[in-house]
Amino acid sequence: MEQKTLITSTNFNVFLAQKRLMASKCRKCGALFLPPRAICPTCWESELEWVELSGKGKLAAFTCISITPTWMAAAGYGRNNPYCSGIIQTTEGPKIACRIEGVDARDPESIKIGTLVEVDIRERTQGDKKIPYLAFKVA
Fold first, then answer.
1. For 34, which of 30, 51, 94, 123 could close a Cys bridge (C-beta 3.0–4.6 Å)?
2. CA 134, CA 13: separation in Å to the nearest integer?
3. Between the CA of residue 42 and those of 30, 35, 39, 45, 121, what are the distances in Å?
């Protein structure tokens, strides 16, 4: 089924709603991309396929955010309740930016690069819609 599904950000979000972390894989050179890409920037191949990742990785970088976008402020985040955003290097190799859960964003020195994490796909409400977003949590 995944091989016939177009590689788009919309379909990536459909997989997230199904609690699946999907990347695209180049059929020519084998490179993996997360977020998925429809064209391989390594060999310019356009034949890519969806592959499901393990959902495991490690924290490669992070920042704690206390000046928040409007929708995060509406969710209760701000100067007194910062949140953590970071870069995860997945076990399969690709890196992706996402929310980091299960850490104390009020105490950034307690957060360690290299911490093992696992995928934690969540939803936020926008109007009457539930929108999935990618997060990882401490394993």
1. 94
2. 9
3. 10, 15, 9, 8, 29
Which residues sit opposite 87 in a β-bridge? 61, 97
> What is the tens place of the pLDDT at every residue in 56-69?
999 999 999 999 99
Q: Which of 94, 88, 93 is nearest to 119 (CA)?
A: 88
Taking the C-alpha atoms of residue 138 and residue 120, their distance in angstroms, rounded to an integer, is 9
Whether 1 has a pLDDT exceeding 50, the answer reads no
What predicted TM-score, i.e. pTM, was given to this entire model? 0.88
Residue among 26, 25, 23, 43 nearest 34 (CA): 23
3-state secondary structure of 99: strand
What's the CA gap between 19 and 35, in Å, rounded?
A: 15
Q: What are phi and psi of 63, to 5 degrees?
A: -145, 150
pLDDT tens, position by position, 27-56? 999 999 999 999 999 999 999 999 999 999
Q: Phi/psi of residue 6, each to 5°?
A: -60, 145
